Design the sequence.
C-alpha cells in the first residue's frame, strides 16, 4: 500500500489528525505501570493547579505489543509509542478502514508518541514500516470482538448519564466486546441488575484495568469535532453518545434504558408526580403562577400531586425556587430507585428538561415536559412536550442567566410565557388523565 500523506487526501496537514510527543528517554518501571488522565502523554504530568480531567485514568503506556518494542492501543484514539532504545526510523500510517481515508502517514523518531486527534470511534488500521522499506513489519486492524473496552460516562448528573447509557448496550451488542462502563455508582444502581453483561465501575476503579480501547462520553462545546463527530447541538444531548460510539441507523433511535419496575404500587389513590427544580434557572418554568394553577387543576380533578424533587428550595443569588404551592412534599435526598417506584405507577409525570424527566422516560409513563431553552431535538420525544414558539426559545445554555436577554425584560421569557392553560390543555390530551366526576366533587 502506498504511503499517502493527509495532504494528498484533503489538503490538511498531518497535525490536524495526529499529535507527536516525546516519551521519556528511559521509561522507568513506575511510568510503565502508571495511569493518568487520558489526554496526557507517557510520563507527562498535569501542571500544578490545572483542572484535573473529568475522566477516570488509563494506562499511560499503550497496553498492546506491536513489534521491536513498539506499543499501541486504542485508548483515547489510537496511541503508538516507539521505544527510545530502538534507534530505527519507522514510517507509521493509520487510516479509517470504513472510509479508506488515510489519517496519518509520516516518518517517526525513536521515543516518539503518536496519537490521533480524533477520539471518537474510528475503525483504525495501523501499518508500520521500517523507513525505506515498503514491506510492513506490522499491521493491525482494530477489532473489538471479545476485547476489553471501556466507555466512560464522567459526570454525576442524572439526565446526561441516563441519556448516554441508552447507547452503551447497543454498542456492546454490535461489537460483542467485554464492556466496562464507568458510571457514578448511585446512578449505575438504577441499571446495573438489568445489564448483567456489562461491568460497572466507579471512576476511581479505572486504574485497575488495561483496556484494548476506551471511549469518552460528554458534551463538547465551541464546535469541537475531535471528541465528537458532530456538534451535539445538531443531534441532541443523548444521541451524541451514539455518534461518539460509531452507531448508525436504528441504533440511534430513542430507546430508554431498562429500569426495575417490579415494586408493588404504594399509593392506591390516583396521583401525579411533578418535578419543579433543576440545575440552572434557564430550565425552570419561570411563569410565577404556572405550577400553582396546574396543581390546583389536578387537585380539583381528584389527583394527589406529589413533588419528588431532591430540594424543597433551590437557587442562587437573587433567584430562588420553592416547592409548588399545594403539592405534597415528597422532596428529599432519597435513593433514585424510590423515585422510580413512585413514578412508574403515576398516571403521568410533569417535569422540566432535567434529570427526573429522564428517569420518568425510563418508567414508561406519559410525560409532560415544560421547556423553552432547549429545542425538542435535544431530548427524547414525548407527544406532551410544551414549548411556546412565539417567544425567544431554544438557546440551550447551561448557566443561570439568559444568554440572549440577560438583564432585560425578556429574560427567561421562553418558559415565563408558557401559560398554565397551555399545560392544562396538554394534560387533558393524555389518555391516562382521569378528570373528576363533577357530580361527586
Sequence:
Amino acid at each position: 500500500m502506498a504511503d499517502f500523506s493527509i495532504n494528498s487526501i484533503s489538503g490538511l496537514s498531518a497535525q490536524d489528525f495526529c499529535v507527536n510527543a516525546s516519551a521519556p528517554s528511559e521509561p522507568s518501571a513506575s511510568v510503565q505501570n502508571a495511569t493518568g488522565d487520558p489526554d496526557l502523554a507517557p510520563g507527562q504530568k498535569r501542571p500544578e493547579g490545572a483542572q484535573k480531567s473529568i475522566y477516570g485514568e488509563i494506562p499511560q503506556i499503550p497496553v498492546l505489543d506491536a513489534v521491536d518494542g513498539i506499543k499501541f492501543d486504542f485508548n483515547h484514539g489510537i496511541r503508538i509509542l516507539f521505544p527510545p532504545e530502538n534507534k530505527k526510523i519507522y514510517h507509521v500510517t493509520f487510516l479509517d478502514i470504513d472510509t479508506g481515508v488515510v489519517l496519518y502517514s509520516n516518518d517517526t523518531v525513536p521515543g516518539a508518541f503518536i496519537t490521533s486527534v480524533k477520539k471518537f470511534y474510528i475503525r483504525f488500521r495501523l501499518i508500520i514500516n521500517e523507513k525505506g522499506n515498503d514491506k510492513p513489519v506490522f499491521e493491525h486492524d482494530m477489532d473489538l470482538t471479545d476485547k476489553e473496552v471501556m466507555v466512560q460516562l464522567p459526570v454525576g448528573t442524572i439526565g446526561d448519564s441516563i441519556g448516554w447509557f441508552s447507547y452503551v448496550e447497543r454498542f456492546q451488542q454490535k461489537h460483542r466486546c467485554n464492556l466496562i462502563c464507568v458510571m457514578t455508582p448511585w446512578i449505575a444502581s438504577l441499571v446495573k441488575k438489568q445489564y448483567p453483561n456489562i461491568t460497572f465501575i466507579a471512576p476511581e476503579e479505572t486504574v485497575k484495568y488495561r483496556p484494548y480501547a476506551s471511549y469518552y462520553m460528554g458534551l463538547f462545546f465551541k464546535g469541537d469535532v475531535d471528541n465528537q463527530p458532530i456538534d451535539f447541538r445538531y443531534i441532541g444531548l443523548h444521541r451524541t453518545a451514539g455518534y461518539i460510539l460509531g452507531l448508525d441507523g436504528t441504533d440511534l433511535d430513542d430507546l430508554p434504558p431498562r429500569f426495575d419496575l417490579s415494586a408493588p404500587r404504594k399509593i392506591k389513590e390516583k396521583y401525579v408526580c411533578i418535578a419543579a427544580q433543576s440545575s440552572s434557572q434557564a430550565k425552570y418554568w419561570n411563569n410565577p403562577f404556572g405550577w400553582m394553577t396546574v396543581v390546583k387543576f389536578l387537585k380539583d380533578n381528584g389527583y394527589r400531586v406529589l413533588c419528588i424533587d431532591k430540594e424543597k428550595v433551590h437557587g442562587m443569588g437573587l433567584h430562588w425556587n420553592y416547592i409548588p404551592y399545594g403539592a405534597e412534599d415528597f422532596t428529599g435526598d432519597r435513593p433514585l430507585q424510590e423515585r422510580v417506584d413512585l413514578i412508574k405507577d403515576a398516571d403521568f409525570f410533569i417535569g422540566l428538561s432535567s434529570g427526573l424527566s429522564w428517569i420518568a422516560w425510563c418508567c414508561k409513563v406519559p410525560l409532560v415536559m415544560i421547556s423553552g431553552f432547549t429545542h425538542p431535538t435535544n431530548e427524547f420525544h414525548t407527544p406532551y412536550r410544551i414549548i411556546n414558539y412565539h417567544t425567544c426559545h431554544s438557546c440551550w445554555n447551561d448557566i443561570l442567566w439568559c444568554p440572549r436577554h440577560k438583564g432585560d425584560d425578556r429574560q427567561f421569557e421562553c418558559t415565563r410565557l408558557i401559560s398554565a392553560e397551555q399545560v392544562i390543555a396538554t394534560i387533558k390530551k393524555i389518555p391516562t388523565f382521569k378528570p373528576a366526576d363533577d357530580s361527586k366533587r
